[in-house]
Amino acid sequence: MNLVLFSKRLLWGIYILKLIYEEVCCEQVPCAARSYGQSSVICVCNATYCDTVEPESRLTQGYANMFISTLAGQRLEKSVINFTQQPSKTAQVTLEVKPQIMYQTMLGFGGAFTDATGINILTLSLPAQYHLIQSYFGRSGLEYTLGRIPMASCDFSTHTYSYDDNPGDLDLVNFSLTMEDIKYKIPIIQKAQSVNRQKILLFGSPWSAPAWMKTNQNMTGYGTLIGNPGGPYYKAWAKYFVRFLEEYRKHNITLWGLTAQNEPTDGYIHNFPFQAMGWYPDQQKDFIALDLGPALKAGGFSDVRLMILDDTRLNLPYWAEKVFSQESSASMYVSGIAVHWYEDFIAPTLSLDVTHKEYPDKFILATEACITSNFPSKVSLGNWENAEKYTHSIIEDARHWVTGWSDWNMALDMEGGPNWVNNFVDSPVIVNAKADEFYKQPMFYAMGHFSKFIIPGSQRIEMPQVTSLEGFESIAFQRPDGSLAVVILNRGTSPVLTAIHDPVVGYLTQTVPPRSLITFTWWR
Fold this sequence. Notes:
By secondary structure, this protein is of the alpha/beta class. The chain contains 10 helices and 23 strands. A hairpin with a 5-residue loop joins β1 and β2.
């Protein structure tokens, strides 16, 4: 081991010990707020300072933790409040929690280890990198438990590349991970794992096969694999997945899942600007049944959770009905259905309900979301409305059988990149490399209201939604240890005096401020 690598590992070990000490001894470090003229503020972190989340208290019956974030500038601020045995006569809303009625089990919340994420994290000094990693994955941070890994390049890379750019190499003799995996993805994943007290469920998603495997001889644009399912190119592409899993395992990274293709409908769009590969559901069905499923089983990866679609819910339930048709064996290899939030505004939640009803043994997981509509700049520092959009989507999805929610890039630069086709977007964390700072957006804290408290194994429980107040949304969960968690979003401009009724404990009455987000947790 060379001296530079040894020094870096030693410093990282010191930072982890520092993190453990801070978690044991210290209270919440407050947000260092800064305004960029938007509706709210960002929290500034650097090599010497970064805000933290105060640990949740294991309280006696009759008390609850409350964590609140607001447009006014509060960020996951903790307090302890008490239950009463009588309801407030002035409460505007009463939420009845019914733990005896249970729905889906949650997998978790997280984001993607893109090239752009790794590039931006590595532009920071090592102490600032430590703060960023622990902010997402550490006990004093959001404790993400989902991580998506693009298989080779996507638009949030600096160029197009695959793991085998050698035409005709159907046996994948020349398959190898790239510099981007070795430098930007794997080290960041390993650091995230080193500070996380839970298992991170990692899943891979391909954007395109190598250009020489495709009908258009290009990783972008309108094109699909050459030939038909069961043919040599489909066999080679299936083997590509297995080789990816094997190579990551050599770095002590075991993947929990795979999606069969990122946004398969993109590859049937003429002149699509970045990496894509087209699939119709019948093609995906046959590829899984004839090639990918058997290849994963033969390679010793039958326990890897394979997901179909990985595209907007506008394609449901049709896509699932085709892939899981009775005449196909594809269903036996598939564990779940992946959805993206784009076009949700025209895709009814009924599509999720119908899909779950038809295929209750297949989980539904939200695997990508990002803010793309800010103009003229894609990065909108301090935009509270974006936090509300994230929260609304998570609550809506979870109320309709979705088992988890994964954000897109975890860290982007001040422009919203890098992105080789200038498809810039926003992110919960924005890195300012010149100042050796990173900025936690309101979206970051919106994610934390779920990822920190709705831990894997939690189950959604019945709590009727309030329909009389526009912009007021809520959802409830029972966690693995039997404790309960309720998340409330108030997008309205007026405070709402709210009572949560747990028949075992009593009434929890609290004013939910305008433009705020609150998570309550308690033990029964």
